[in-house]
Write a structure and sequence with these properties.
The complex is a heterodimer. Chain A is mainly alpha-helical. Chain A is built from nine helices and no strands. Helices cover 85% and strands 0% of the residues of chain A. Chain A is globular, with a radius of gyration of 18 Å. Chain B has six helices and no strands. The relative contact order of chain B is 0.15. Helices cover 74% and strands 0% of the residues of chain B. The chains are: A mainly alpha, B mainly alpha. The interface between A and B is medium-sized, with 31 and 30 residues.
Chain lengths: 231, 230
């Protein structure tokens, strides 16, 4: 009974965010345009050179990381700016708010990645050696980015300098996930340099690390979110 | 605080002064130089204890943050921020001394060795912690936001310490052979070991002393402010 209520509240928060996002398309268009601009700058400035797989993976994740930094704080900052946070606080359990915002951030960042990664492959003229590995690295990396930045977004929305300190706070916390994502993507782009099984085993370790990182972040955020949200 | 207690603290303070003096002298004159690194190896008596204290200070900061979140006492929040201040100081000392050592042995001040990466991230976390503190006006909100961030960052530090040095593409140049020989146990000359452990204890004591001093000053100032209000 309690748990079904809770899940329904979380889904209601998600539906509310998606509906208001669909009406304004503010976050999605801003983040997507930022990501495409950054990608164009990268591609334009390095197009004469053929790059190594690790450099390409690093570029891809720099673009994804900074687009996450421009967009993912919106979910909480908007509630504070529109002065709807208090209503949400009164009507909904804190954990349900967190889970709803987390799902929205995963959806937003996933939508951005779904546009950016194919565009990246086209613009940089890359044929990934292991498309499946690239897809799973992108999905798990998106989960990791969203799970670490949702709680940071909640912290930032309660502070004064909302835009300026989000990336500063998020980077050290996100770094373990980010470095695993970059390594898995490098393996996916590079292909058969080493022996195939060793490569896949290494990449599988990175993917496991990414999943474990996301679970750790979500679990500790659920424990800590109450202190950020209700003070 | 009773008289005998404060006398004990005064005696400990004197002991700490003598202890650190002896450690500094011993580090240069008593301990032998390591075989491969020569005189440069004497950095371990200062660089590693500083790095150790910067991690310990962060752990103390997290412990006080958790306590603040549980019972909301202003003193715990202040203690967490003082510990973070000291940790930042020792982290800078460890980074700068390590960087000078890197220049002397590897030829460049900075090359993103895994250890350098993890201490740099620790430095960033401390910086972010204070950036967050300074951007919140309301004291109780500042306390809880900073505490939550401290706990969250502390959870990711072990990941960095375990993940970053295991990047296979990056070979660490960091000479941790004499300190953390993998599987070989501690592999150090007896006199070096004595001075190293003493220095570790001395640095930890120094941290504890300055921390308690800062906390006592804070209590005094708060009491004074309360009295003026009355």
């Amino acid at each position: 009974m309690w748990s079904s209520n809770w899940a329904r509240e979380a889904l209601a928060v998600l539906a509310k965010d998606i509906r208001s996002e669909y009406r304004t398309r503010y976050a999605f268009s801003a983040v997507l345009l930022f990501a495409v601009t950054a990608l164009a700058v990268v591609s334009f400035s390095v197009s004469p050179y053929s790059l190594d797989a690790d450099v390409q993976a690093a570029f891809l994740w720099i673009v994804l990381f900074f687009s996450a930094m421009t967009g993912l704080s919106r979910s909480f900052v908007r509630e504070e700016e529109a002065r709807t946070a208090m209503t949400l606080r009164l009507s909904t359990a804190p954990e349900a708010v967190y889970v709803g915002k987390l799902l929205f951030n995963i959806a937003l960042q996933g939508a951005v990645a779904a546009v950016v990664v194919p565009l990246f492959l086209v613009l940089m003229d890359v044929a990934p050696a292991h498309p499946g590995l690239l897809a799973s690295a992108t999905i798990l990396g998106t989960m990791a980015l969203a799970s670490s930045s949702t709680i940071i977004a909640a912290i930032v929305s309660r502070a004064n300098a909302k835009g300026a300190i989000f990336a500063v706070l998020a980077f050290p916390v996100t770094l373990p996930g980010l470095s695993s994502a970059i390594r898995a993507t490098t393996a996916a782009l590079r292909g058969a340099v080493g022996s195939g099984s060793a490569l896949v085993a290494g990449a599988a370790g990175d993917l496991r690390a990414l999943a474990a990182y996301s679970v750790l972040m979500i679990a500790s955020s659920l424990l800590l979110f109450d202190f950020v949200w209700d003070d | 605080m009773c008289v005998c207690n404060s006398r004990l603290f005064a005696a400990l303070k004197l002991l700490l002064g003598v202890w650190m003096t002896v450690v500094i002298i011993a580090a240069f004159f008593y301990a032998p130089a390591a075989q491969n690194l020569g005189q440069m190896s004497r950095i371990i008596y200062f660089h590693i204890p500083a790095a150790w204290v910067s991690v310990v200070a962060f752990a103390v900061c997290t412990a006080y943050s958790v306590r603040y979140l549980r019972n909301r006492r202003t003193q715990d929040d202040a203690a967490a921020s003082f510990s973070a201040e000291l940790g930042l100081l020792f982290c800078v000392i460890a980074t700068v001394s390590g960087s000078i050592f890197a220049k002397a042995t590897w030829g460049s001040y900075w090359n993103w060795d895994p250890r350098e990466t993890s201490i740099f991230v620790l430095l960033l976390i401390y910086g972010a912690y204070f950036a967050l503190r300074s951007s919140v006006d309301d004291p109780s909100r500042r306390g809880s936001l900073a505490a939550v961030y401290g706990v969250l960052a502390f959870i990711t530090v072990p990941l960095l310490v375990f993940v970053a040095p295991r990047i296979p593409a990056v070979q660490s140049l960091h000479p941790d052979g004499p300190i953390l020989a993998t599987g070989g146990g501690l592999d150090m000359d007896g006199r070096m070991m004595t001075v190293f452990i003493s220095s570790l204890m001395g640095f930890t004591g120094l941290y504890a002393w300055v921390f308690s001093l800062r906390l006592r000053a804070w209590r005094f100032i708060t009491a004074l402010a309360n009295r003026q209000e009355d």
